[in-house]
Specification:
The complex is a heterodimer of chains A (112) and B (121).
Chain A (H helix, E strand, L loop, with lengths): L3 E4 L2 E4 L5 E7 L12 E6 L5 E6 L3 E2 L7 E5 L3 E6 L8 E7 L6 E2 L3 E5 L1
Parallel strand pairs in A: 2-11
Antiparallel strand pairs in A: 1-3, 3-8, 4-5, 4-9, 5-6, 7-8, 9-10, 9-11
Chain B lengths: L2 E5 L2 E3 L5 E8 L7 E7 L5 E7 L7 E3 L7 E6 L4 E6 L8 E8 L7 E4 L3 E5 L2
Classes of the chains: A mainly beta (112), B mainly beta (121).
């Protein structure tokens, strides 16, 4: 199974400042079609997860452009260019290249 | 709009059974695979199972539930089920059904609100 490791566990942020978090996979998530099969989700407090980024760098419909994803075959990054108060919650990466689907343990973003 | 509504959760003793349902609307149900993903209290997300659009033998399970849980779908009712047998305390979680997207990479693109399963005597 592909293990997804996220860091940091907790990320205190200041509104208006940038934020960055990491996700590392135990196996390459680079598909033969050239796409990276990693997705990012935000779970706001008391809510269901919502899709932010798919294929490593593609914003889902309605996701603000302050969110961006990047990475190689095994190391991925989610960046928020200017954090807003509504961005608090737990961010999860997920690999969809093979079954079983696996999630990282999450990075909790909170306002300082 | 896309809606996924889970039901069937509750309190069940260890060793017991429960069947969860996921009613879908707002999209062409037969085009999509559906996942079950769970979240134990205060913990992260754990994928459970997937059934593809045609309820064929094309289903996958997490090792932690294989042989105890069975996923199925009724396309006439736009509903996916998760039959859970031999339940254990560690199966206690909110269970979400979620749609497998059609875009490249097939991300999970919509989630339900979840239903809570508590395994306790």
């Amino acid at each position: 199974d592909t293990v997804m490791t996220q860091s940091p566990l907790s990320l205190p942020v200041t509104p208006g400042e940038p934020a960055s978090m990491s996700c590392r996979s135990s196996q390459s998530l680079l598909h033969s079609n050239g796409y990276k099969y990693v997705n990012w989700y935000l779970q706001k407090p008391g809510k269901s997860p919502q899709l932010l980024i798919f294929l490593g760098s593609n914003r889902a419909s309605g996701v603000p452009d302050r969110f961006s994803g990047s990475g190689s075959g095994t190391d991925f990054t989610l960046k928020i260019s200017r954090v807003e108060a509504e961005d608090v919650g737990i961010y999860y990466c997920m690999q969809a290249l093979q079954f079983p689907v696996t999630f990282g343990g999450g990075t909790k973003v909170e306002i300082k | 709009q896309v809606q996924l509504v889970e039901s069937g959760g509750g309190v069940v003793p260890p060793g017991g059974s429960l069947r969860l349902s996921c009613a879908a609307s707002g999209f062409t149900f037969t085009d999509y695979g559906i996942h079950w993903v769970r979240q134990a209290p205060g913990k992260g997300l754990e994928w459970v199972a997937i059934v593809f659009y045609d309820d064929s033998s094309n289903k996958y399970y997490a090792d932690s539930v294989r042989g105890r849980f069975t996923i199925s779908r009724d396309n006439a009712k736009n509903t996916v089920y998760l039959q859970m047998n031999s339940l254990r305390a560690e199966d206690t979680a909110v269970y979400y059904c979620a749609r497998r997207g059609l875009m490249e990479g097939h991300p999970v693109d919509y989630w339900g609100l979840g239903t809570l399963v508590t395994v306790s005597s």
